[in-house]
Amino acid sequence: MDISTTTDVPPPASHSKAAEQKRAARGATRPGDRIFLGLSRGSGILLLAIMAAIAVFLTYRAALAISKDHANFLTTFEWNTNVLEPKFGIAVLVFGTIVSSVIAMAIAVPIAVAIALFITHYAPRRMSGPVAYVIDLLAAVPSIVYGLWGALVLVPHMNGLFGWLNDFFGWTGLFSWDEGAPRSMLTVGILLAIMILPIITNVSREVFRQVPRMHEEAALALGATRWEVVRMSVLPFGRSGVISASMLGLGRALGETMAVATVLSPSFDIQASLLNPGGGTFAQNIASKFSEANEFGRDALIASGLVLFVITLLVNGAARLIIARRAEYSGANA
Amino acid sequence: MSNALVTDKRPSTLRAASLPKWTPWAIAAGSLALGIGISAAAGLGSSIQWGLIAAVLFVLGTYGIAARVEGRRQARDRVATSLVWVAFLIAVIPLVSLIWVTVARGAKVLDVYFLTHSMGVVADTEPGGGIYHAIIGSLEQVGLATLIGAPIGVLTAIYLVEYGRGRLAKAVTFFVDVMTGIPSIVAGLFILSLMLIFKMQPFGFAGSLALAILMMPVVVRSTEEMLKLVPNELREASLALGVPKWRTILKVVLPTSIGGITTGVMLAVARIAGETAPVLLLVFGNPFINNNPFEGAQASLPLYIYQQFANSAGSGAAYDRAWAASLTLIAFVMILNLVARGIARWKAPKTGR
Predict the structure, then answer these.
(1) CB–CB contact B184 A36 (8 Å)
(2) Of B46, B84, B247, which to mutate for an interface test with A (greatest number of A Cβ within 10 Å)?
(3) Chain A residues with CB-CB distance to B280 below 8 A
(4) Positions of chain B with pLDDT lower than 70, given as ranges
(5) Residue B173 to residues A47, B13, B57, B224, B236, Cα–Cα distance (Å)
(6) CA–CA separation, A125 and A128 (whole Å)
């Protein structure tokens, strides 16, 4: 990470010969060049520094809070910070965040893949452009508006669905319903599904577009139907792309705040049924507990935010690694 | 519904029987009618349920009919096609509903008075008041965030495309990608931790910093894509004339891609303009007009929506105001989107794609 790469710094040995020559040719540095390179490289380094600072400062404040926690931070079903012996833990939040995101993924991924296929392979040519545009608009709607819409439109519409689920699947325990307001994890999951649909669709669409035409035409020439073309050439080619798109969507769902805060009626326990209100997510808990939190309470919320940060970091990092791996061995679309 | 296509004259062995072109429409109409009939008979209230029943009938009907006439493989193909169409229609429902509700509810209160007055001495339960203070706050916070985030983002993208080689560039690329996924509330908490350390009270610029963090990776990504579209011949031509690299970038590369970069920045602005979570933590909200983003709590549009909604219990004046503010915000974001895409189309670099 040498800041002053000018003429006198030899290029790393790993570089190819051509790159070396290029470098040598560019060698003669003018002050303008040096300043500009410094500025642009500085910005890149600044980005890295911000990421590092986020990790460091969150960890620092979180450590302050956790050291005074009178209960186990990982397993406590309680969030009580404004008392002499504060007790708080993230067990409920981990559960709620994962459950709501998994529901969202289960609903959104198949639909998003279908829409991506619709845009790239099924829609009439004149329609695919506008459809892609509509999906983009769906992505542009602010999350707070989704929240308002969810509370006004989605929640009442859930009554019918919940009653039906309770009638037919209530015996599983997962779908039993006590006729409360349907502000539960399932509703949150559905709303999150609507919100992450566009990003999954957009990324999958790009991947499906890159499928080599030759593969498709070969399948068609063998007499495959359109579905067989999709199944034999498009989906295998796009599989890793779809996986990483889904993980990007998962990252969004994990961190969504306002939509969850407006739709869920939270409580600090874990409901066995997805239909009964209760539970909470990291982001929702931070937003709703923040206004009544004192300085210590805020540190405690920062501690929970740190956990969320780490989780999303892992999910997004994994998604990127999958994309990068795919880029390496898919020489077909060069 | 067999359409006399399976004739007793020996058909060519090369062409299997196939359904006429209008079959999907006929099945769609049939299943829609049947779906409505069944739902009405069962007394289901929600029109969405009717639609779902009709959709299920459509898929099943398509499979049944196609399997009888055309065979299994064709039937599967048709089912896939109809499922894809159904998925698309399902996705359109929430968007249409959302826009419809927002416009219908928002138009009730939205007028010039609403846009030009603050919530100064208006209680939440009273009608009247407006969003002037929130618009001011939003514009200042988003403007400052753009002033910080856009240059850093564009410069980073220039570094990655024009200079970037080696480990540093790889690390930056990877972390830009990861940064795209940072939840907005975590960016807010990061600035909050700084404010706790330096014992600061909420103020507008703190929100701008968090928004800038959210904006940078988006700008980097889109700018990078645009810079990659600039043909190398242009760079080489300029460099061959002895123009220094930095002037080549400023005078040749950037002007060629400026349309795309502007689009990317505007899309990023549209994204951060709707962020509520960091603003909630850092700017706090304020019913009065505060023109100074560097001191004292400010309001902001998304935050205003959330607070009015939270104080309204689902009806009354505050609730109407929340929707009117939503309509304003959505209109702002959508216009930004439309203009951005317009610029992209208008200024697109002419590559031979």
Answers:
(1) no
(2) B84
(3) 287, 290
(4) 1-16, 43-49, 348-353
(5) 10, 57, 48, 10, 25
(6) 6
Q: Give whichever of A240-244, A283-287, A324-328 has the largest mean pLDDT.
A: A283-287
Phi-psi region of A319 (alpha: psi -120 to 50; beta: other; left: phi over 0): alpha
pLDDT of residue A147: 92
Instruction: Output the domain CATH number for residue B224.
Output: 1.10.3720.10
Asked if B185 and A258 count as a contact pair (C-beta separation under 8 A), the reply is no
> B110 in a domain, yes or no?
no
Q: Is residue B351 part of a domain?
A: no
Return the CATH fold of A87-333: MetI-like fold (1.10.3720)
Residues B200 and B73 occupy one common structural domain: no
Q: What is the pLDDT of residue A22?
A: 53
| Average confidence (pLDDT) over A212-228 | 89
Same domain? For B85 and B168 the reply is no
Q: Mean pLDDT score of chain A, rounded to an integer?
A: 84
Same domain for B334 and B193, yes or no, is yes
CA distance B67 to B63: 6
How confident is the model over A53-68, as a mean pLDDT?
93
Segment A13-18 mean pLDDT = 50
Domain that holds residue B94: 23-105
Q: What is the domain count for chain B?
A: 2
Reported ipTM: the value is 0.85
pLDDT, tens only, A17-38: 555 555 545 555 688 888 899 9
The answer, for B198 touching chain A at a CB cutoff of 8 Å, is no
Question: Which of B105, B121, B156 is the last residue before a domain boundary?
Answer: B105
Cβ-Cβ contacts under 8 Å, B180 against chain A? 248, 316
B302 and B216 in a common domain: yes
Contact A227 B46 (CB under 8 A): no
Report whether B275 contacts A142 (CB < 8 A): yes
Which residues does chain A have within 8 Å of residue B97's beta carbon, measured at their own beta carbons?
149, 153
User: What's the DSSP call for residue B294?
Assistant: T
How many angstroms separate the Cα of A262 from the Cα of each of A187, A198, A324, B307, B323?
11, 21, 37, 11, 14
Q: How far apart are CA B177 and CA A319, in angstroms?
A: 9
Q: Which residue of A has its CA nearest to B330?
A: A141
Instruction: Please state at what angle helix B184-197 crosses helix B204-229, rounded to 10 degrees.
Output: 130
* Residue A46 CB neighbours (<10 A): 16
pLDDT in tens, B31-65: 888 877 877 777 666 666 677 788 888 888 888 88
The residues spanned by each domain of chain A are 1-55, 87-333
B99 plus B151 within the same structural domain: no
- Asked if B337 has any chain A CB less than 8 Å from its own CB, the reply is yes
- Determine, yes or no, domain membership for B117: no
Which of B61, B88, B105 is at the close of a domain? B105
In this structure, the answer to whether residues B151 and B293 fall within a common structural domain is yes
- B148, part of any domain: yes
User: pTM for this structure?
Assistant: 0.86
